[in-house]
Design brief:
58 residues, mainly alpha
Length: 58
């Protein structure tokens, strides 16, 4: 796994954690929660789309 892929996964995992926390504890969601939700969905879609288009090494 390349450093770029690892960094992308870490960012997506952090965004996912914020989204999950907002779902479990809605009163504690930060004011920028909507932007985080949208960023997570767009980032996930881009990452999975890129994974589908590129060929695996080997």
């Amino acid at each position: 796994m390349t450093r770029r892929h690892r960094t992308s996964l870490v960012v997506l995992l952090l965004l996912n954690a914020v989204v999950l926390l907002g779902q479990l504890w809605p009163e504690g969601a930060p004011p920028f929660a909507r932007a985080v939700n949208i960023a997570f969905l767009v980032g996930s879609m881009a990452y999975f789309g890129h994974a589908l288009v590129t060929r695996p090494p080997g």
